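U., I forgot to send this yesterday:
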Amino acid sequence: MSDDTTVLEQDAPGVSIAAGGSLDEESQSLIEDLGNGMQGVGNLDLLLDVNLKISVELGRTRLKFRDVLNLSAGSVVELGRQTSEPVDIMVNGALLATGEVVVVDDHFAVRITKLLNRVERLKRVL
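Result:
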C-alpha cells in the first residue's frame, strides 16, 4: 500500500451514488456541514456532477535509466506488490480506498475492501 497512513473503514458497504444517481441523506448532510465550515466554497451541490479521475495502482517499482532504455515489447517489469495484496484506488491522485482486482464481463474491475470514511473522502476530493 502507499505511504498514506490514514485509517480506512473495514468492509465498506459500497458506493452510495449510482451513475447518474443522487446522494443519500447522510452524504448530503455531510456536504452541507462541510460547505458551511469552508469559507468561499459556496454550494457544493454544483460539484456533484463533476467527473473525477479514478485510477487503480497495482504496484510500483524503480528502474535504472539504462534498464528503461532497454525495455522492449515482451519485457516484464516486476512490481513491488504481491498478488495477494490489495490494490490502491485513487481519486485525482489521492488514496480513497483499497480493493481486489476482479473481472466483470471480460473487463477488469475492483471490489472495494477498505474505504476512507465519508469526511476523509470529501476532504480528499475537494
